[in-house]
Amino acid sequence: MTAPTTIPPLFCGANRNIAFAETLESLRFPLSNAANRLTDNPAEIAARQGIFSDLMDLPALEDTFANAKTKLDALAELVRKSGGFLPKDSESALYALRELTVFTDAVEALSYAGPVRSERLSAFFAAVRRIEEDPDFAALRDWLDTLADSLRDIRSLTLGVNLDAQLNATEAGIVSINPKPFMGGNFAECKLSRETADAGYSVLSVIGIRESGLFLGPDKLAVDRAFYAAMNEIVRGSLRHLRRQITSDLADTMRSLLARAEDISHILSCASLLRRMKEAGLPLTFPEIGGETKILRLYSASLAEKLATAQIVPSDVRITDAERIFILTGPNAGGKTVYCTALGIAQLFFQLGLPIPARSASMRTYAKIAVHFTREAAGSTESRLANEAVRLREILDGADRDTLLLLDETFSSTSAFDALYLAEALIDWLLDAGCRVLYSTHLHELTAKYGGGVVPGVSCLSAKIEDGRRTYEIVPHTAEDPSTSLARDIAVENGLGFLFGEYADIP
């Protein structure tokens, strides 16, 4: 083929070490294998944003990729059955011939001719079109169309044997591939049945085991078997040679096309997620790429699929050089963990090139994103604290100014006195390291030490309470915010009111 053999990738520059597997698990991140596709390259993020912007605006694109994915899955299976690009026997060679048909189908499925704004998509589809428009590809497609019925149900092969002047065989090979078995017998039978037999499917003389035994003799059975073994090898060799001839210029293109299957799978997973979020009626925005993070009305992507739009409470996010560590306090079930999760998912969405669930945003990238949420562990309180310390040590290894940490209820497995002591040491260490941190905690005492601008770089947030009730919005902490977790309210709401002399009416 004269067309380029390489189809450009849709995604480049992924970094495998940006987020721990525990980070995605703790956030219950909705996309599988996302860790392998995260990037902190602003140019790559911008290119991906172009892809997903087109995908959201052009529904036909998703249909194109979905159709192509079906073909590529079938092509990958046929390549596997055929033994790769070097088939070893006649059966695998037939799979190899069939895979050529699936290959042409996959190319045609990806020949999207609609307008796209993304340079990455434009280059991808242009490469596919160049392959489709190549004269050699067109000739292959026409030949396969002619051969299609035979390939689906091969019942016989027409072999040709070239002879020299002494009638000695000099060459043998396949003349045609046929969907029907030939009819045969002796010369008279063929003459009598010629009117009912399809042209090209009758022979004048059949050489089978009985017939060859007559001229080879009963003691020549080994020779007879060798004859048919040789015939089988002619068939296999001819099919392999045919396949090599056809695919000699196509193998690289087929490999390149199959290599794009993972990109297409990722696109389809993201498209499904974005479609569900749009159907929930909540805004999505592609963040501007900058040096600080400012998100207006961020909401939880996970809640979008569980609650009605009116029930979801958004909040703002602001992380700058001047304000880089945030201590978040507030009542139980007041939205602190939801806020941590929403920020983590938004950051991962952004570094995948996806829009985030917010009204507008400007965001910076991070080379490392880590989450430390409370997790049940078997054993005593001491063992849980030890387990927590080990996990935290792994997270803090190499943490610096290019790290985003989301900490939820760290050190909650020990006493309040010890937890406060450990939390203060942790915050001081994070300040020196220059990390960006959201630290959700019930340790309200931390706001007294670090709040109100007392410590440069540290700000305090609070889960807002109005008239003694949770609003689920996260706002800057003020001196008037109550230092309470409303634990009593949670207990009463869940049936422990009798502990305080409050009894529910029994019907």
Q: How would you describe this protein?
A:
The chain folds into two domains: 258 residues, no CATH class; 219 residues, 3-Layer(aba) Sandwich (Rossmann fold), CATH 3.40.50.300. Helices cover 47% and strands 15% of the residues. It is built from 17 helices and twelve strands. The strands form three sheets. A six-stranded mixed sheet has the order 8-9-10-6-11-12, sandwiched between helices. The chain has a four-stranded mixed sheet with strand order 3-7-4-5, covered by helices on one side. A two-stranded antiparallel sheet has the order 1-2. Strand 1 and strand 2 form a beta hairpin. It is elongated. About 2% of the residues have low confidence.
Properties at a glance:
2 domains; single chain; Rossmann fold; 6-stranded mixed β-sheet; 17 helices; 507 residues; alpha/beta; 4-stranded mixed β-sheet; elongated
The global form is: elongated
Number of distinct beta strands: 12
Integer-rounded radius of gyration: 35 Å
Distance between the termini: 82 Å
Tell me the strand percentage band.
Answer: 5-15%
Number of helices: 17
Per-chain topology:
Layout: H1 21-27, H2 42-57, H3 59-81, H4 90-109, H5 119-133, H6 135-152, E1 156-163, E2 169-178, H7 187-193, H8 209-216, H9 221-247, H10 251-259, H11 261-279, E3 288-289, E4 293-298, H12 301-304, E5 315-319, E6 323-329, H13 336-352, E7 360-363, E8 368-372, H14 381-396, E9 403-408, H15 416-433, E10 436-440, H16 445-450, E11 457-466, E12 469-476, H17 487-496
Parallel strand pairs: 3-7, 6-10, 6-11, 8-9, 9-10
Antiparallel strand pairs: 1-2, 4-5, 4-7, 11-12
Helix pairs in contact: 2-3, 3-4, 3-11, 4-6, 4-9
